[in-house]
Amino acid sequence: MVGLEVVTALLAKYGLVLVAPIAVLEGPIVTVIAAWLATRGFFPIWALALVVIAADLIGDLLFYALGRWGRGVLPPRWLDRFGLGAARLDALAAHFEVKGGRTLLFGKFTHSVGFAVLVAAGAGRMKLGQFLFFNLLGTVPKSLFFVALGYGFGAAYARIDHWISRASLVMLAVIVAFAASWFLYRKARR
């Protein structure tokens, strides 16, 4: 990604027209920077909130689509090699049928595993309406949190970017450690 100073200059020059596509790719820090620019009068804060919520949903829909229709592009033997055989995909579909909303919200709020959860929701054939409902339920508070963070402390966007990265890495490490422990526990019980 280009430097944060370049992103800031581009957002200041082109406004909300550029916020949307960049926020699809790199939502949190772009939201923080754009909210800081909104405090300086570059665009209305309410319009920014709507744009970043829409951009986040569009990005999430793209990951969902990758999971839903991307698996049809790969040959079955490749799917098996990635551990996505018919039995695993059926189990994934059953999981998202029962616990899809909870799983999506977990992915949204941890930020670290969001990509994997969104792709898995698509691969598990989660109903699109249900996906959109729970995704919106998680997107609104998350996006508004980053808007508020940028509005209040956006001048420190470089430091905030560092904090977001660190928090994501710590969360990922905790999730991996928990998953490994759970896997080893399950294996030991057999």
Order of helices and strands: HHHHHHHHH
Number of strands: 0
- What is the SS-derived class? mainly alpha
The low-confidence runs, each spanning 5 or more residues with pLDDT under 50, are none
Query: How many H/I helical runs?
Result: 9
Shape: elongated
Distance between the termini: 46 Å
Assembly type = single chain
Helix content: over 70%
Main beta sheet: none
Write down the Rg: 19 Å
Task: Quote the average pLDDT.
Answer: 83
Q: What portion of the residues fall into strands of 2 or more residues?
A: under 5%
A few lines on this structure:
The chain has helices at residues 4-14, 16-25, 27-39, 45-70, 76-81, 86-110, 114-123, 128-153, 157-189.
Give an overview in words.
The protein is an all-alpha fold. 84% of the residues lie in helices and 0% in strands. The protein has nine helices and no strands. It has helices at 4-14, 16-25, 27-39, 45-70, 76-81, 86-110, 114-123, 128-153, 157-189. The radius of gyration is 19 Å and the shape is elongated. The protein starts with a helix and ends with a helix. The mean pLDDT is 83.
